Amino acid sequence: MRNTIIVTVLLFIAVVAATVYYFSDSSSKQENATKTLQYLPADTYFITAFKNNQTTDTIFRNFELFEAIQGKQVFENLKTLKQDFLGSESLKGKVQDTEVILSFHPSKTGIATLFSIALQEKLNNTTLETIFHGIDSKYKQNHVDTLGHRIYRFDKGIKDSVLYCTLYENVLFAGYEPALLYQVLDKAVPKLDAKQIAFFINHNSKNTPLSLYFNNSQISPLAKQMMRSKFGIYLQQIDSLHGSTAWNLNFKSDALIFKGETKLDLNHRTYLHLFANQSAQVQTLANFLPKNTASYLNYSLSDIGSFHHALNDLFVYRKEADKIKSQQQLIEKESKVVFQTDILPLWNDEFAIAALDNDVLLGLVSLADSSKFMETAKKISSNQGDSIYQFNYSNILYASFGDPFKSFQRPYFTRIGNVLVIANQTGILRKYRQTYFENQLMSGTAIFKNHNAIHSNRANVTFYIEPSTAKNSIITNLKSEYAQDFKDQDDFGYQNYYSASLQLSGNEGGFVSGFYAVYKSKNRLGGTPEWTFQLNSRLINNPWVFDQSENSKFILLQEQDHTVYALSPSGKELWKTLFQGEILGQPIQLQDRSIILNTRSRLYRFSPDGKLLPGFSIGLANNATAGLTLTNFNNEKRIYIPCSNQIAVYDLNGKKIEEWKNPTLDSRILFDLKAATIANQHFIVAGTSQGSVYFFNEGGTLIHKQELNVNGQTLKNPIGIITTSDKKNSYIIVPKDKGELIKVPFEGEPIKLKVGDWGSNFSFNFEDVSGSADKDYVVLSENNLSVYNQRDATKYFEYKFVDDVNNTPTFFKVTNNNDLVAVSTNNRMIYIFNEDGLVRDGFPIEGMSKFYFGPIDFGNNSSYLISSKRDHKLYVYKF
Fold this sequence. Notes:
Layout: H1 6-19, H2 30-37, E1 46-51, H3 57-61, H4 64-86, H5 89-95, E2 99-107, E3 110-118, H6 125-132, E4 140-146, E5 149-155, E6 163-168, E7 171-175, H7 178-185, H8 194-202, E8 211-215, H9 219-226, H10 233-239, E9 243-252, E10 255-264, E11 281-282, E12 293-300, H11 304-317, H12 321-335, H13 339-343, E13 347-356, E14 361-367, H14 370-380, E15 381-385, E16 388-391, H15 396-401, E17 412-416, E18 419-423, H16 426-437, H17 446-452, E19 458-459, E20 461-465, H18 471-477, H19 480-487, E21 497-507, E22 510-519, E23 531-534, E24 544-547, E25 553-558, E26 563-567, E27 573-578, E28 584-589, E29 595-598, E30 602-606, E31 618-619, E32 629-633, E33 636-643, E34 646-651, E35 674-678, E36 681-687, E37 692-696, E38 702-707, E39 720-722, E40 731-735, E41 740-745, E42 751-754, E43 762-767, E44 776-781, E45 784-789, E46 795-800, E47 810-813, E48 819-824, E49 829-833, E50 845-846, E51 852-854, E52 864-868, E53 873-878
Antiparallel strand pairs: 1-2, 1-8, 2-3, 3-7, 4-5, 5-6, 6-7, 8-9, 9-10, 10-22, 11-19, 12-13, 12-20, 13-14, 14-18, 15-16, 16-17, 17-18, 20-21, 21-22, 23-53, 24-25, 25-26, 26-27, 28-29, 29-30, 30-31, 32-33, 33-34, 35-36, 36-37, 37-38, 39-40, 40-41, 41-42, 43-44, 44-45, 45-46, 47-48, 48-49, ...
Helix pairs in contact: 1-4, 18-19
């Protein structure tokens, strides 16, 4: 796939900007920039500037985004220039706080870097030689005279690290390729013109740390230098994009974000010009692309009529209009379908092309009316079976949308809702339909979701690429030396970019433009695990964190074979043991730091070092169906365990409380038991699957039973509890289907409430998510998460998942105020929400459905995600 090579161009531009993020100074003097820029060759790829001062040292200590693309050798060369030359005692006073222009240029060996420094005082070669003698003695110095100027050479005996310098018009030029310096000195070599320099100066923002400039026409030569193949669909459009671009930087530790202006040369007629007078629209077609999409181009229109008019003018300019018109006349003659009145109105305002990881191309078109389209399609296409059709006439899509569909002469298509999906082979569409209906879509992946969080969903043109998915195509189409660099993970880091995108939004004949790239930074939230631990099988519980001593904690977890591990906060195994069965519910740590929990068949109490306390473990007479509840009634701690339709009660020594009368309930107890003290009376409350609520005292006497009218429904969700100072205003919350719940008071008649609109397949939890001091109704139904205020049933927030979600939400207390709600989707994506319903920074992240989020040690306020993947390895990420 020739198209994906553009990522190299984009990422290279991005890293230049990232490089000088720490270098830049918004108070740079324009006259110095103008003086320096006028000597740069006309074929300069891109330019930026920075002030030479102490703040620039940051880049040379640790900036992985920069080193990833430049490579370690170039990175070392730049550190050399900064430390040994600009930072030397003999030169530092002459260049301190002086503006340095950093520019990149074509060369025989690849891409050459040039540093240009307009000196603060007038110097001659004699003075300069004296200054250079103060440079570190490890450099062997000599010079050569050429073109009437002297070029100095600094060699420390390392290959490809010889620095060349020359003084010209009181500007010091330095680089690692002498041919570039010759171009600067040679007046016969064309230089940047005044308009380009003015554009760069005028768009250097005073309010951002960096402005980056490049001539649009230089993107094509840069790409051609790197590629072994001809341009594909993507770069054919960029190839003809004349004009200039200036971007301002919005820096993140794990992403590069640039926004600015792209000015077009209106003397050129190109396809992208058609969008310059459109306005940005919401783009949605990426949600229909399969998971193995490597890259795509998405187009959207605000004025469909003006677009088609301008497209027709472009066909006339290209001398294609007559051919297209004759094809349309053939359609009208044979099918009685008029292109302008019958076909064009079928299309909506959005279309796209996408390249998959196997080089296959897909096209997508949004339909204005899917029913009307199918009526018309029957007249101009033939049915191929399996809901797939083929156009009977050529260039229908090309005449409708232009360049993106030039390779789809007489394609096959299938309809998914209001979207037409196009390919050149029926097998591609059959596979696509299977992928779509299995919900294996790119929109559900962590990479795409995280990228969507930084780039806009409104644009006229969006180019998106995932280097990991496009890897094979990129390598195939790069020249060998660049392909080698792309594959080299020791000296480079190209493949550490999750994603990149370029967006254009029409702006009165030009574009508001932006570039975005997300990097696998070790500093990124959730980007690189702090540590990993290899398990033998999958986790079957959420991990837990408990106190080990007064100043340390430990992590407890259980895998599928029921082995229980205790790990230190740094990932060291402290101990492991085998429990009889899966841990149910939430283990509880007591004041002496011992932990109590139960499996289906046994009750355990053990110390933080893994040793069982005397008398434990204890076999349960009846199998437990949920985790235990601990009470402290009358200063006596007791353990209550639901065992299907009975209750087992023990003291902390494991002795069974025989006086507990333990009646048989009418059906299975719903999850854990609730304990409360109201008006000095103690209660143990159980809800059952048949819709009954039992109120016991601490001795096991049934105070009363409330049978609810649930219309024959079998209840499947846990009950909630609201306690106040009196029994009439204290309630048990019983969730039902159809958006209803029942509030059962400790004294009085039940109250039925309509809260939401969930169906029969839902999960219900009663937790404090909003931080409002009251617990909230948290409902997950049909992939929709909703949080309601329990006082008036108003909705705090809702979130619609693109992916299916069959896992119930989990809750983690990270602050003292509220619980964080967390959800794991069926395609192994973990979401954690703030109280305002926004997804926390760094999420979603890939992981299995059993996980923990929160602190893991004393003295460390950071939160950590503990999760696993299909490799049965535990991953611990810092947030």
